[in-house]
Amino acid sequence: MRLILLGPPGAGKGTQAARLVAKYGIPQLSTGDMLRAAVAAGTPVGLQAKAVMESGGLVSDEIVIGIVADRIEEADAKKGFILDGFPRTVAQAVALDTMLGEKGVKLNAVLEFIVDQNALVGRIVKRAEEAKAAGQPVRKDDDPEVFKTRLAAYNRDTAIVAPYYEKTGLLKKIDGMQPIDTVTEAMMKALG
Predict the structure, then answer these.
(1) Where do the domains of the chain lie?
(2) Is the pLDDT of residue 180 over 90?
(3) pLDDT in tens, 35-91
(4) Do residues 16 and 5 touch, judged by C-beta distance below 8 A?
(5) 155 DSSP assignment
(6) What's the sign of the alpha-carbon dihedral 27, 31, 36, 42?
(7) How far apart are CA 106 and CA 47, in angstroms?
(8) CA–CA separation, 5 and 16 (whole Å)
(9) Is 3.40.50.300 the CATH number for 2-26+79-191?
């Protein structure tokens, strides 16, 4: 099972990805984690990424695709993988499709979690309040202003990736406003 999870921050992608990992025994691949691992391992692509990051630049799509290409060759990803937080742009989606095509690998589905964005802000505020009440630190990205900035970036850059995958017939829309278990059931049903 090879999947991409799309949806704004706070839509429940991480929660649902954990359930997919448990069901299918495939890894959830985060580009940030993969970048750090490639840099630490000193792979050729990791060394390129390190040089860019040390100069304060943004890692190019080409480097990120190279890191994804290397990562999906690892043993734990042979049965499949879940990409969460990537691709973030249509250019990345096109590059990903090209790379997968060169490897003879096909995506099974792209799951888009559809959520009410105003309710998401409320959800994040509640999560921050619950953390404070429990004496736990509040996640930096649970600050309402930081969250609104991340949401605006998602709407500007990433929301357009879903129509790209809709044209390919891979996109499956999931109502992310339902209770967690209901979202899981809908997701599993969509995956057949």
Answers:
(1) 2-26+79-191
(2) yes
(3) 888 889 898 888 888 888 788 777 889 999 999 999 999 999 999 999 987 898 999
(4) yes
(5) I
(6) positive
(7) 28
(8) 9
(9) yes
